[in-house]
Amino acid sequence: MKYILDEIIENNRKYTSEGNVATYIPELAKGNRDDLGVCVIDMENNTYKSGDYDRKFTIQSVSKPISLALAIMDNGKENVFSKVGMEPSGDPFNSIMKLETVKPSIPYNPMINAGAIVITSMIKGKDNDEKLDRMLNFFRRLSCNPTLEVNKDVYMSEKITGDRNRAIAYLLKSEGIIDGDIEGILDLYFKQCAIEVTVEDLARMGANLASYGIDISNGERIVSEDIARTVKTFMVTCGMYDASGEFAINVGIPSKSGVGGGIMCSVPKKLGIGVFGPSLDKKGNSVAGIRVLKDISRRASLSIF
Ligand SMILES: NC(=O)CC[C@H](N)C(=O)O
After folding, report:
1. Which Gene3D superfamilies match (predicted)?
2. What is the pLDDT of residues 120-145, one digit of tens each?
3. Is residue 304 part of a domain?
């Protein structure tokens, strides 16, 4: 396995030059475009890594399925899906358009920014500190990594410049989809996106979802089977934004990408995979990371379809 991963990383590193690091969050522009790393974890907890697997990066939108799981645990499915839809939008992740043209202005799904901001607003806690604590603890639990923390520089960088998300959140408030302290909700959302991880953290979260919510390292249940299934289904239909259809055909693995360059994948009953490659394509997905996943999927016949 290790040898195959080494070969796949080396074959695909050249594709990092076809994209670029995200720059709309200024701090992310400091990333190294050529980085490419992978971690694969099977259901027996065997862990294989290759390339730049030791890099730390911010989770960004890969956090969306995880916070969705917590919001469902906090509020129940019915409440959550009265405020967020279950359909792919076909629009870029930060699009505002459908909030205006489709009424009621319920975001299409929890994987686009509008939907994810609604989800973050539903996390329970007496104040923002408690909400962040609960959120961080949940991410730590699912990744089996008690040291996960928020990267303060990336968080501040997005907080200062995140006016598009601010516009989305205030629009959602004006439409009655979210209420309360919008700046507080955005602050929590920016912190959620700035949680710092490695490919191993992503692979482990993917593996624990692949096992339908059972911690593969000790057999304890973390989330219900139904939540694990719901989250993975969103990863298939909306996880790669408006590239989800093409990705399903070429790779066929429930996956979630983020503009930090990470992709978390979950092959039901088989594997968790984490990939990192901060060079992004036009849709905001890791350009070489997708190639790596395509090769892994083909070599190990992992497509779920
Ligand atoms: N696609 C992403 O990873 C987007 C996350 C980022 N924090 C944003 O809201 O713009």
Report:
1. DD-peptidase/beta-lactamase superfamily
2. 999 999 999 999 999 999 999 999 99
3. no
Question: pTM for the complete prediction?
Answer: 0.97
Q: Which residue has the tokens 């429930």?
A: 254
For 261-302, what is each residue's pLDDT tens digit? 999 999 999 999 999 999 999 999 999 999 999 999 999 999
Give the nearest ligand 1 atom to 165 CA: 9
Residues 45 and 81 in one domain: no
User: Which residue, 175, 193, 211, sits at the end of a domain?
Assistant: 193
Q: Residues lining ligand 1, CB < 6 A?
A: 60-61, 93-94, 113, 158, 165, 193, 258-259, 284
The answer to whether position 165 is within a domain reads: yes
Q: How many domains does the chain have?
A: 2
Instruction: Report the SS3 class of residue 271.
Output: strand
ipTM computed for the complex: 0.97
Active-site position among 50, 61, 67, 143: 61
Residue ending a domain, choose from 193, 216, 246: 193
CB-based burial, 28-50: b 16+ in 10 Å, e otherwise: beebebebbbbbbbbeeeebbbb
